[in-house]
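Chains adopt folds. We examine one example:
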Amino acid sequence: MNKEILINNEVITPMVLENVKNWDDPRIKPEWINQILNCRNSSGFIPTDDDVRNHLHGDVLTLGFQNEIIVGFNSIDFKSPKDVWGGLVPNLALPTETGVYFAGALIDGNVQKSGFYQQMNEQRVVKGVEKNLKIVFTETQNPNVEAGIVNTLNTMKENKAITDYSMENRILLSGLYGRCMYNEIPKNAKVTYDNLDYQAGDAYGLIFHLNLK
């Protein structure tokens, strides 16, 4: 277990599993899979059941429990952007340095905008900082994901967990998802993805470089 998180006076207890190869890992109970699918149903995010199951793996998989029910999960892999996206954008000079890849995340709609996502992000970044990794990266169709990572890194900078950070230009990953992955196209007041072709399944790759203490 990791440190408990207090959200709206409710405790969320993380369970951290390492080296999870796939969703049928014996440490993942069948009822937890159903609870995670229920999170999807309230989230506004519309991956298929198989999409959700196929993201339940990683070098680190964290499940968040509230009153013994899962209200979200996240997964990370320790890879480089070149490892993950090299086949999608072969002509682009991607970083080959190992970083923290935000491979998957899903948050129950009832705890969205509660601060839980930001705290999960911080725990994911910290896993990399502990390994002296200086890159954080992910792909998304949702500008709120980008804004959330920026908020997390700003908080970590203010708290002196990192000294600074920078973000590369967004990388267009054409047709990555094959469709729009949301019931409604997500919007953010500060970050715009208006040029993204959602119906074609396009996404942006996001790469952040950290300056560590």
In short: Residues 5-211 form a domain with the Aminopeptidase fold (CATH 3.40.630.30). DSSP finds five helices and nine strands in the chain. The chain has one domain: 5-211.
